[in-house]
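User: Teach me something about this protein's shape.
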Amino acid sequence: MNDLIIIGAGGFGLEVAAYAEECGAFTIKGFLDDTKPPGSFHAGYPILGPVAAPIDSGAHYLIAVGWPPHRRRLAEQLQAHGARFARLIHPLAYVAGSATASAGCIVAPFAFIGSAARLGRQIVVNSQAVIGHEAQIGDYTVLSPAANIHGAARLGEDVFVGG
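Assistant: First, the predicted structure itself:
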């Protein structure tokens, strides 16, 4: 199992922690968060420190922040210091075998990703969101629950799609 550190100890962070546990591929080390004191706990998980804490070279990271510009800033900051990003696809999501999802992607339960779809870096596909066949989703994009992107559509970077 891979050690996982989640960036952002809010509600979405708790969802990402639950998804990671349900995947069975990760051991959650805790959260990095600038608003909670190091050494405290969030729903039983330790707050390891602020986002600027030294990178744990043995761990993978996921960003549990839903606003695209913040996802970009955090990803670039962490990557500049050597962070490795996980890819989390919940076992109850459907992802076609010909689809691709890049590092940092989070695919929630009951999401659908069709044939030959391409997901850029640091994308969030929330529950019941649909990405149709051959769609291309740009880096740092977030799809809200029940958002639908139809086949062959193209979204740029830093896009937020509401449900």
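Now, about its shape. The first strand starts at residue 2 and ends at 7. The mean pLDDT is 97. If you'd like, I can walk through any region in more detail.
User: That's plenty for now, thanks!
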